[in-house]
Amino acid sequence: MSKPDPQPDPEVYEQGRGMDAHNEVMREIRGRRDRTYDPREPTRVWIDEDNTPTGVYQSLTIILNTGGCRWARAGGCTMCGYVAESVEGGSVSHEDLMAQIDVCLEHEAENADERSGLVKIYTSGSFLDEREVPAETRRAIAETFADRDRMVVESLPDFVDREKVRDFTDHGLACDVAVGLETATDRVRHDCVNKYFDFSDFEAACDEVRAVATEDDADAGVKAYLLLKPAFLTEFEAVEDMVSSVERCAAVDGCHTVSMNPTNVQRHTMVEDLFHDGGYRPPWLWSVCAVLERTADADAIVVSDPVGSGSERGAHNCGECDEFVQTAVKDFDLRQDPSVFSEVSCECELTWEAVMEREKSYGMPLTR
Ligand code: SF4
Ligand SMILES: [Zn+2]
Question: Would the pLDDT of 342 be above 80?
Fold first, then answer.
């Protein structure tokens, strides 16, 4: 018997797990992309405000263009449109990545009065995957932001390693690793999201980060990203899956924050195909509120920043109440006080309740 491949590699997970069919469909869908991108420009950059274990900070959020997630190239997750935004050919050089960082610093200087205490770096995949971001670049970026307080870097669990985290904490930066876990339920992660790893891999990544915190007495932790309402779940199933996922993540040592992302319909994805065919509706904002309210006692900061909310492609209610419900969510993110939700109401809450009660599956037959 040959020894297992020591390199973390999504292809290994894919084999024999029944994921080939999902991947084949996704490769075809992504093949329709029609735009190309400049490797010296970040995918996106913006200034915001975030709640962290050490308080609320002004944040600089960067989506680096790194050539894309290697899992996405095999097919990737059912809702992820990032790969359609990535660079043709698959890798971006150190110089180009640093040029993207310069663009972000300029953006910050032009759009904020002060420097952000928190810097969050996402990629179209994993910042800690050295095929996307070489070690040299990771260290140069840590040095560039050494005068800040906290950094968040995004990674799939396979690439999380205590030495990589130390590149940041050795500069005195608090470091949070953001892991796109999506759900604590392996079956939903595999079959609805088409993501290849298990909850136990997430726990192992938390152990790596926690080792830095305990051995070096550094501030290092994990931020779990969860996906509210992946394809193929009813509204009710999605809410129940999310409540149990938040609770299971909060119970893992080292995971101090849970960020719940309602699915939004991105271009060139399987979710988009389902959406056009009447097979998918993004979650209700009432579902976001319900999860936040029910998990308010969890032993972690629980936040949600619904991308594109209020629009057809993002989490939405009836159109009348979306804006003030979203304001309540934002308020909860910063203060963690569930009473904000008792101050919002709308007639459409009754419709949401009926959906929660009656929806059986997205493709319910019309006749029997
Ligand atoms: S969600 Fe993450 S792992 Fe999945 S395809 Fe997108 S970037 Fe890759
Ligand atoms: Zn409403």
Answer: yes
